[in-house]
UniProtKB/TrEMBL annotation, chain A:
Keywords: Molybdenum, Oxidoreductase. This is Oxidoreductase. GO terms for molecular function: iron ion binding; oxidoreductase activity. Residues 32-136 form the Aldehyde oxidase/xanthine dehydrogenase a/b hammerhead domain. It comes from Streptomyces minutiscleroticus. Signal peptide: none annotated. InterPro entries: Ald_Oxase/Xan_DH_a/b (IPR000674), Ald_Oxase/Xan_DH_a/b_sf (IPR036856), Ald_Oxase/xanthine_DH-like (IPR016208), AldOxase/xan_DH_MoCoBD1 (IPR008274), AldOxase/xan_DH_MoCoBD2 (IPR046867), AldOxase/xan_DH_Mopterin-bd_sf (IPR037165). Transmembrane segments: none annotated.
Automatic annotation (TrEMBL), chain B:
The keyword Iron applies. The keyword tRNA-binding does not apply. The lineage of its organism: Bacteria, Bacillati, Actinomycetota, Actinomycetes, Kitasatosporales. Pathway: Alkaloid degradation; nicotine degradation. Signal peptide: none annotated. This is Oxidoreductase. Residues 38-114 form the 2Fe-2S ferredoxin-type domain.
Length: 712, 211
């Protein structure tokens, strides 16, 4: 458990709100059930709609027979590509639902049944008969797939391939070499609230409540697709039941809800069923890694080669940038980082918490552990020996980098010095116990945002920004930033977020929310403070206001390489009889700039580590070669960690004073918790058993087979 | 995508099921005589409601759609996540799995009703466990939270009544209250998923309210 007494931060200045463990502003609403999510807007006359998903992996819809569905009581209408409103082509092809007869993958929506009730819509969907013209499909990724090619760029705009020096030659000439491979399966975001939207046309005005990480981009998308000016569209996301990347872009539910509302003239809610999510909300694409590390006898890296093969769909190229962290982590002059992608007849992959870094650092940090073993060197000392002076790939100086401090502080807290480095050295009856370490990194991202701040005659302040709180505590943190910029107590600040009626702001993603929104909030409040300083007498009835737009500043090029770093430690017990691996404790120490709220930051870090525990031990999806869908499509088959899997998780941080970030000095904490955590668990399993497992998740069947094979 | 429950809730099934055993109720729904709905009386948070309920409707949808009590959440709609957990006659249930018409005469407590219950409040209108969730930051997105809270209260009741769990010492005397250690809490709450990973803080919050 996290300790609340030990926050690991310096005491806040008197009157300083930023950094304090302020309670979540929407907390009462959430614990009393009053917080309303997207499907919970009971508009008069609201109808419910249920999508029909394609049951073939590739082909065309030959016909849709909706007659039986339309005969059912309570069914209002059935939308298909034959009668649905025609929309302007979206930038994101996954949103072009019911626009043509093409089925690019199994689970693609081919019809939508609108009913008076959920039951009527669902029964109607079951009664729709769809005939298909099927085509041969290919959904199976392997490293030698003939369609695999090096794309122009990977997710995040990273070059798909970077080569420095002579990596092959340097590796071949290295005194100690590790040449190894890892597999990370498809993973599903599965936020607890399935993707849902409620749409309502009020004359020529469109009002949408949607479960999204950012409603400003949702509005832009809807305006383009439905050819309605943005000022006639309101999109809200007051409370969002998690997203983890899958709600970072609009999803088909919002397009279908708006379409059905226009078609029927009724408010319509589309709440996707859990089983639909893997096909239509993105997934973490599988990654096949080859990692080669060459080093001298002293442990100094002489060559690093990280090559990744992944898949994307036929309709959109998304390339999980898993080799990118190798461009950041360790000092080496000869390196190759390359992505290849094979377009398959699969659902379109997308962002899942720390895309790129999460699978990439699993592979790189597992390989570092293998190298430490080959060198007979402590894995922490190996990492410290390869600490770079500048970012290896770009040559830029780091704005701040405290990985070594994280490793040392984590080792101290975890009790690393008491570890017997020999594998299989701790046995408790049938259990083998081991510990492992891995590093973490995540880039500092930030986007331009606008915000406004208002001083009201009653002495309170209203701060407005279309931020989204997907569980991060955005309201609370932004109020803290505002209070300090205004120089007033926290309780004088009211914060409004979650609606496109507010100043436009970027989405909650890339661990950039607090930095992006907070920057504009800080600037608006700073300007307002200046205005107030120049004002004499009582405030006018309407108060005083100031606005800020960080375009040109937040997105200005930085001469620095800006990343958060961290170190993960894990202790596991592996049952040699059942093959079951249990995590006993996890401990992370992070250097993520200034921590804006000790309470909510800790929760996010622990949450990321917990998702990493799942990635290591329980989570995995498989693409069924025959049927072309994910075999693990619901929460009974896709195992997210449960209470009993998560015993003791501690997150700490070290002070970091980095002037090259933003006015708050923050780096973001939403994703770094997952990065490297799976490697720490895997490395602990190796330490426990002496067996190296290279394919996630480390389920009992795999572990038991590995132990048997090794004679353990 | 078809859900898994369709075949279990056709009108014929319901006719031959419990609803049909109460002919006075059958056909008294929104469309009288259509055989699709049954008059059902359910007490929710102390208030009795008599409704014409679609025979296919589960308790979760009755709460959310008919009564506007959206505190119970729909996370999976098939009994796998626990977000819909409420208390029926004092016992925790996945309300997405219970046909509402089968609950005629039952008393339901949802998260909205906790602070008004017998256990009292902490003086600021919250049940002590709700207060503990705030104090411990035992949630992030909040979507699993009502289910976690209701489930924890159910689990505390079960342990007090002597119900063992998978991790209870098999040698413990049967029927005696089971002390809720951290392992017991974790085991008993494992039907309530939290994707934000608030588990350690949830366990602390539950510990805070143990007698």
């Amino acid at each position: 458990m996290a300790t609340t007494a030990d926050t690991g931060i310096a005491p806040a200045d008197p009157g300083s709100a930023v950094g304090a463990p302020a309670e979540r502003r929407e907390g009462r609403q959430k614990v009393t059930g009053r917080a309303r999510y997207a499907a919970e807007h009971h508009l008069p006359g609201r109808a419910h709609a249920w999508p029909v998903a394609a049951s073939v992996a590739r082909g065309r819809v030959r016909s849709v027979d909706a007659s039986a569905a339309l005969d059912l009581p309570g069914v209002i209408d059935v939308l298909t590509h034959g009668n649905a409103p025609r929309l302007a082509a979206p930038d994101d092809p996954v949103l072009a639902v019911l626009q043509d007869d093409r089925v690019p993958h199994r689970g693609w929506f081919v019809a939508l049944v609108v009913g008076e009730t959920l039951e009527a819509a669902r029964a109607g969907a079951a009664a729709v008969r769809v005939a298909y013209e099927t085509e041969e499909h290919d959904v199976t990724l392997d490293a030698g797939h003939p369609g695999a090619h090096v794309p122009e760029e990977a997710n995040g705009g990273h070059p798909a391939r970077r080569e420095q020096g002579d990596p092959e030659g340097a590796f071949a000439a290295s005194a100690v070499r590790v040449d190894t491979g890892y597999r990370v399966p498809p993973l599903h975001n599965h936020p607890m609230e399935p993707h849902s939207s409620t749409a309502h046309w009020d004359g020529d005005r469109l009002v949408v409540h949607t479960s999204s990480q950012g409603t400003t981009p949702v509005r832009t998308t809807l305006a383009a697709m439905f050819e309605v000016p943005e000022e006639r569209i309101t999109v809200t996301a007051e409370h969002v039941g998690g997203g983890f990347g899958s709600k970072g872009t609009p999803r088909p539910d919002v397009v279908l809800a708006v379409m059905a509302a226009r078609h029927t003239g009724r408010p319509v809610t589309v709440a996707l069923h859990r089983r639909m999510l893997p096909s239509v909300v993105g997934h973490r694409a599988p990654t096949l890694h080859r990692v080669r590390l060459g080093a001298g006898e002293d442990g100094r890296l002489t060559g690093v080669l990280h090559e990744v093969v992944t898949h994307t769909s036929r309709i959109k190229e998304f390339v999980e940038q898993a080799a990118v962290p190798a461009r950041v982590m360790y000092a080496v002059t000869d390196s190759l980082t390359e992505h290849r992608v094979a377009p398959l007849d699969v659902p379109t992959p997308s962002w899942m918490r720390a895309p790129g870094e999460a699978p990439g650092m699993y592979a790189l940090e597992s390989a570092m552990d293998e190298l430490a073993e080959a060198l007979d060197m402590d894995p922490i000392e190996l990492r410290i020996a390869n600490e770079p002076d500048t970012e290896p790939d770009s040559g830029k100086p780091f704005s701040s980098r405290h990985l070594v401090e994280c490793l040392r502080e984590g080792a101290r807290r975890f009790g690393w010095s008491r570890r017997d480095p020999r594998p299989r050295s701790r046995r408790e009856g049938p259990l083998l116990v081991g510990t492992g370490v891995a590093a973490a990194t995540y880039p500092v991202l930030v986007s331009p945002s606008t915000a406004s701040a208002h001083a009201l005659p009653d002495g309170s302040f209203a701060v407005r920004v279309n931020a989204t709180d997907i569980g991060t505590g955005a309201r609370t943190v932004l109020a803290q930033i505002a209070a300090d910029a205004l120089g007033v107590p926290l309780d004088r600040v009211r914060i409004e977020i979650g609606s496109t009626e507010l100043p436009a702001a970027p989405l909650a993603g890339g661990s950039s929310g607090s930095a992006s929104w907070g920057w504009s909030v800080h600037d608006a409040c700073t300007r307002l403070t200046a205005r107030l300083a120049g004002h004499t007498g009582p405030l006018p009835e309407g108060g005083l206001s100031a606005r800020a737009d960080t375009t040109g500043t937040a997105d200005a090029d930085s001469p620095y390489a800006r990343h958060a770093f961290g170190a993960h430690f894990a202790e596991v017990a592996v049952d040699t009889v059942t093959g079951e691996t249990r995590v006993r404790r996890m401990l992370g120490v992070f250097a993520a700039g200034r921590i804006l709220n000790a309470r909510t930051a800790r929760s996010q870090l622990i949450g990321g580590m917990t998702m990493g525990l799942g990635m290591a031990l329980t989570e995995g999806s498989t693409m069924d070669a025959a049927f072309g869908d994910f075999a693990e499509s619901d929460l009974a088959a896709y195992h997210v960690p449960v209470h009993a899997d998560v015993p003791d998780v501690e997150a700490h941080w070290i002070d970091e004073d980095d002037p090259h970030l933003n006015p708050m000095g923050s780096k973001g904490v939403g994703e770094i918790g997952i990065v490297g955590s799976a490697a720490a668990v895997g490395n602990a399993v190796h330490h426990a058993t002496g067996v190296r497992f290279r394919e996630l998740p480390l389920t009992p069947d795999r572990v038991l087979a590995g132990l048997r094979e090794a004679g353990v | 995508m078809d859900g898994p429950h369709h075949s279990t809730a056709t009108r014929d099934d319901v006719r031959h099921g419990r609803a049909a055993a109460r002919p006075a109720a059958d056909g008294a729904g929104g469309a009288p005589g259509d055989g699709h709905s049954s008059t059902t009386t359910i007490e929710v948070n102390g208030v009795p409601h008599t409704l014409a309920v679609d025979n296919r409707r589960v308790l979760l949808d009755l709460l959310r759609e008919d009564l506007g009590l959206t505190g119970a959440k729909k996370g999976c709609d098939q009994g796998q996540c626990g977000a819909c957990t409420v208390l029926v006659d004092g016992r925790r249930v996945n309300s997405c799995l219970l046909p509402a018409v089968a609950l005629d005469g039952s008393a339901v407590t949802t998260v909205e009703g906790l602070a008004d219950g017998d256990e009292g409040t902490d003086g600021d209108g919250l049940h002590p466990l709700q207060r503990a969730f705030l104090d411990r930051d035992a949630f992030q997105c909040g979507y699993c939270t009502p289910g976690q809270i209701c489930s924890a209260l159910g689990a505390i009741g079960e342990a007090a009544a002597g119900h063992p769990s998978h991790v209870t010492d098999p040698g413990a005397p049967p029927g005696r209250p089971v002390p809720l250690t951290r392992d017991e809490i974790r085991e008993r709450l494992s039907g309530n998923l939290c994707r934000c990973g608030a588990y350690p803080h949830i366990v602390e919050a539950v510990e805070d309210v143990l007698p």
